[in-house]
Design brief:
6-stranded mixed beta sheet; alpha/beta; 31% helix; Lysozyme-like; Muramoyl-pentapeptide Carboxypeptidase, domain 1; 8 helices; two-stranded antiparallel sheet
């Protein structure tokens, strides 16, 4: 791809990636946030713009707040991989992918600098202005690929984004809540109800009544995003209540 005009005023540089194709469907209606998961941001940018890598993202946000655009928003970047949300499986066609530079869990997971998050917020605001994306469709990579991905992880400050009007977020219910805990291997109606709520919110899990590996992975993904104080794959009362509040307050919900 040759150089192109950036879509957002916040973009400092355009570094085109050859890894893109046409969107299938209309305009994007989802923002997907990642971490780069590599030792350096420049190494990640190089990989996202190499033809042989077969991966890309629309944007890369560095620790110092520098924003680089690699793929025009009108095109389909290759960032989500095998993924699903609310029954949709071509997440690349539906989304704008933002890679936030961070070494990730494999290379010494770090807190995200405030300058970097301020740039992410500004970038997301400009995208939301263009497309009117619903708050509950500003998501983590781990939300749409819970068995494969952990990013951007439990240190990503979703609360700060929410305070700026980005994303759907509620304060997590206290860890000290009393009630029934659901564990991997459990079976029964309570597990079915948990799976139903997770699926209603958008997660790719079926109502089997069995707390299987996929259900555990989805609960971990949910906790990384919405109940970050404890990420253990156990659907304790805090996790269940936080999920219930999110489901009840999501955009477009009807009484």
């Amino acid at each position: 791809m040759s150089a192109f005009q950036p879509d957002s005023f916040i973009v400092a540089d355009v570094v085109p990636s050859p890894n893109y194709d046409e969107r299938k469907g209309g305009a994007p209606d989802m923002i997907l946030l990642h971490y780069t998961g590599m030792q350096t941001g420049e190494g990640a940018l190089e990989r996202l713009t190499e033809a042989d890598s077969k991966v890309s993202a629309h944007y890369v946000v560095f620790e110092n707040g520098r924003v680089v655009q690699c793929v025009p928003e009108a095109s389909r970047a290759w960032h989500a991989g095998v993924s699903s949300w609310a029954g949709e499986t071509d997440i690349n066609s539906r989304s704008i992918g933002i890679e936030v530079v961070n070494p990730g869990h494999e290379f010494g997971y770090q807190n995200f600098p405030l300058r970097q998050i301020a740039a992410v917020i500004s970038l997301c605001k400009s995208i939301l202005t263009r497309y009117g994306i619903s708050p509950d469709r500003v998501l983590a990579h781990s939300d749409v690929a819970p068995s494969r991905k952990q990013d951007p992880g439990e240190k990503f400050p979703w609360e700060l984004l929410s305070e700026s009007g980005i994303g759907h977020w509620v304060r997590a219910a206290p860890l000290t809540m009393d009630g029934v805990k659901l564990h991997p291997g459990d079976r029964g109606d309570a597990v079915t109800r948990l799976q139903r709520m997770l699926a209603a919110y958008g997660y790719g899990v079926e109502e089997t009544g069995i707390y299987d590996d996929l259900t555990r992975d989805v609960v971990i993904a949910f906790q990384r995003h919405f109940r970050q104080a404890r990420v253990d794959g156990i659907a304790d009362p805090s996790t269940q209540m936080t999920l219930r509040i999110l489901t009840d307050t999501r955009a477009g919900k009807r009484a």
